[in-house]
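Regression test attached.
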Amino acid sequence: MRMRRRQGNPFGFNDNTNTSTDIPLSPNMEDYMENISMLLKEHDVVRVKDIAKKLNIKMPSVTAALQKLKEKGLVDYEKYGHVQLTAKGKEVADTIYEKHSFLTEFFKDILSMDKQEAEQQACKLEHHLSSNASNRMQRFVEFYKQEQLDGQQWINRLDSVLEEKRLSDLKEGEKAEIVRILGSGPLKKRLLEMGFRKGEIIHVIKYAPLKDPIEISIKDFLLSLRVEEANSIIVKPLD
Amino acid sequence: MTKKSLTVGLIGNPNCGKTTLFNALTGARQKVANWAGVTVERREGFFHHKGYTIKVVDLPGAYSLTSFSMEELITRNFILSDKPDFIINVVDAGNLERNLYLTTQLIEIEAPVIIALNMIDEAYDKGLTINTEKLGELFSMTVVPTVGTKNIGIEQLKNTIVDSYEKQSTHRKIVIPYGNDIEQAIHSLQTIIEKNTVDYPSRWLAISLIEGDIDAEKKISHLPAADEIIKTTVSIRNKLIETFNDDIVTVLSDMRYGFISGALKEAVRKKPVKRYDITQRIDSIVLNRYIGFPLLFVMLFILFHLTFILGEYPKQLIESGVQWISNLFTGMIPGGQLQNLIVQGIIGGVGSVIVFLPNILILFMGISFMEDTGYMARSAFLMDKIMHSLGLHGKSFIPLVMGFGCNVPAIMATRSLENKKDRILTVLINPFMSCSARLPVYILFAGTFFPEHAGIIILFLYALGILLAFISAKLFNNTILKGKSMPFVMELPPYRMPTIKTILIHMWDRASSYLRKMGGIILAFSIIIWVLSEYPKPSHIEQQYNNRIQLVKQEFKSSLSSLQKQNANPQVIQELDQKYSAILEDLEIQKQQEMVKYTFIGKTGLVIYPLLKPLGFNWQMGVSLTTGFVAKEVVVSTMGVLYHTTDDESNQNLSHKLKNPRYGISRASALAFMIFVLIYIPCLATVIAIAREIGPKWAVFSIFYQVFVAWIVSFTFYHVARLII
């Protein structure tokens, strides 16, 4: 099977494959739909003012957007009146919201990212997933949760792998435990014979004034490594 | 009593105090040579003890015995082929774990090892208590605690060597255990190897082969069963990789470290000491974001100042000494060809060799101090980013800066660079650093032709040199010196106070190596070039001019006397005097010029002159550049001869003459000339230094490259300058 790659969308519109409906919506418009739906769940009535406040956008822009959505038959809206979603609009909004929530879960629970960042990433990604990709991803999240409940070993391994960093990602004063050394050849050999074993503790002492090389201490000696060399040492940061 | 002789090899990690221990063992009885075929130093010394003469070979510092670098290969082959009576493994007691890794490999290669547990005092300060007996037992070796810098344990070490030899004490043979899977693999490979007669320990061969050691493969390639061995090795290796799910080098090194930490648990007690960690304190200043660089520049300024400004005084002393001896010989030997040869050729030549000595001695005192304290590694740490972007190493920086003083000691200073490629590159671009000998040429020409902007012009020349060095570095890196660069991984040794003895030995070492290896050649070449610049002497031309001069003088005399008889007024006499002086001077210039044209160098200058014409040079400039091959100072003195100015009034007078339109030197050609002097062949001594440090081929390459670049750049600047000025 041939993979299809899409090289971004110059007009900011998604094509038909991305939502369950056949109405093409721009990421911007999808955000409106999502937020209107969220506001409706919290309040009885939603006004232009509320949407503007939530999205931090000026009211006339909101009005213009609502006009467009109305043309597509997704919202009910009269000037100065309340905003309501049509049945079709509800469907669209739900799909988007669903994507948002499982993406957030994916970033937060599986990739162990913090909540705020997870939300931000989900907001960006939700507009670009095809329905196929989003279905499969959703299934993956469900599978992960089941496995986690069953206490599967690989979950823990994945968690610790996610904590790994390259030595060059550490900051001055940080300590880390060696996990493995990438590559082969002279550099790896030299590091191995100097005692860069799994589990050995490395202490990042200092970056050179020009940010390269790095001074580290391992065992009982000090060593200088170029950043590109420190890149091939995978470590697990310690507190 | 018959004198018996033993050979021991000294081996250890870099910074383990090996050199200090070597000096403590042998004192000044050392000699330095190169290992056959490579430019890695082989240092040897000897001492007498209890009727034995014991030769000590200082092996290059190494972290392991793989065939990964030239140094390691030399060390390994020394053990395998020279079969020394003992290997003294110098181990830094404060850094046992890493240092003992090399020891595990010595066990594998089945070398007869004595451990010198060096810097035991530092280890004690770190709160370590090492049970040397226990350690020796676990490694099955004799362990002697030493402190090289304080001469502690040296006698005991000497005794141990002799005792071990006399007792032929057979230590129980131990092996590093690798666990069932690997042991089986080693054993099966060993069985195949042992079917052949091999000169090397079979277990070591087996392990090295499994590790994929290329040199080990070479060592068995002549065996009849070579194919079978290689095939078995590959299948064994693949199986092991499958078993361990990791590459085999990692697995084996991990197990060696496992063996070491097991031994250390038994033999070493560590009590926590609240320690004032001086190294980290110093580093926090020396490597500080804001003051790190200024401090480095101050250090370099001091080093430069000491070497080339303070070094100027002994240099002048030597020069006047040489002058004094010349005068002495001039008085003793009757004038003529012989006197010329001895005074100008030989004594002058010797003088040109030893004038470098003060610079070399002082520079290496400084460098030795920086290396031994540990600051050298820090300077490399600071500069590496910039140097690496040019394909160089952090340690290239100091030799390059020293090039501004004199390229000869600077090129010798590249020895701090361990990697061969880095060294070649640093040596090759060093001549672009405008050395102080080129300054007189700039001062003369910039002062004469650009009097208002002389400073800017000179600054421009220095900058141009640096720029060309960088461009050349980039160019070489991508062409002739292309190839994998070695990892930088550089130890930052703890700060230590160097001993005066070590520094003195290092200085002496460099100076004597300079005198022995370069002095003779520089002397020989100086004499040859002196001969070429003096001979053949066109006696008929000299005679011809002398006659004409004589005639003019007579004419002057007779005119003068007739005027005096007539009681002419003084003004008329003065005019006559002036007229004749001018004629005489002119004749003298013509005579000198004709004579120079006759010598070999003069002829060469004339032959190559057409090549230099496109750069706007006149033939005098061509000849000066040719003689300037000896040393750049000679450029100015040759010009002095060619334009006939007597020595002392030199610059002003010469400057005046250079401007004479008769010689046709324009400002553009003056600029081109200075640029040519900046770039072309450094000087005889530099060429020889290059040949000695990295090989004659590179020296020849350097000559051609520099002349080529000089021509191109001068040509460009000449033609551009002609349009502008």
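Expected vs. actual: identical. The interface with chain B takes residues 181, 184-195, 197-198, 205-206, 208-213, 215, 219-226, 229 of chain A (CB under 8 Å).
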